[in-house]
Amino acid sequence: MESRSPTIFERELAGEVIAFDDPEYPQIYAVIRKAIRITSELNAMRVDDNEQVNRVFSELINKPVDETLFLIPPFYTDFGHNIQIGKNVFVNHACTFMDRGGITLEDNVLVGPKVNLITTNHPTEPGQRRSTISLPIVLQKGAWIGANVTVMPGVTIGENAIVGAGAVVTKDVAANTIVAGVPARVVKHL
Asked: pLDDT digit string (tens) for 172-184?
């Protein structure tokens, strides 16, 4: 049996550097264009209709979401297809999920307003900076992300952890801890 080469989507989720001139890059760009169209629709909606918001959000992420998701638009994403949402998740307004590396929000996660979950970065080598490298972000059960937090690529926020408002999270956060600051550091154990 002949083995197949991984798709650009699989290569990206595996953390491979993806160049804009990759012959498969138009496939990524097609999903980006779809995300732009759907987020425009989502952000023009009346926010008092949670069922309709969840329907459009399901179309954006290309899979159904649990009816317990409560998301307040506006919402921004550069991709959408690599977002996984558990049950009883709350996402406040003006959040940005750059999800090409994969974003998972497990059950009972709370995301404050203006939170940025950024899974994609650029190589530091000047000749490669127009390429991207993506790593996943995971918010484990019961995590609470405060207002205006930025979580960088490859970070896992542990179960029941709290990230204080305005923090920049560059490293994993242990379960049952509170972190704050830039860069985020442990300030308390729960």
From this structure: 999 999 999 999 9
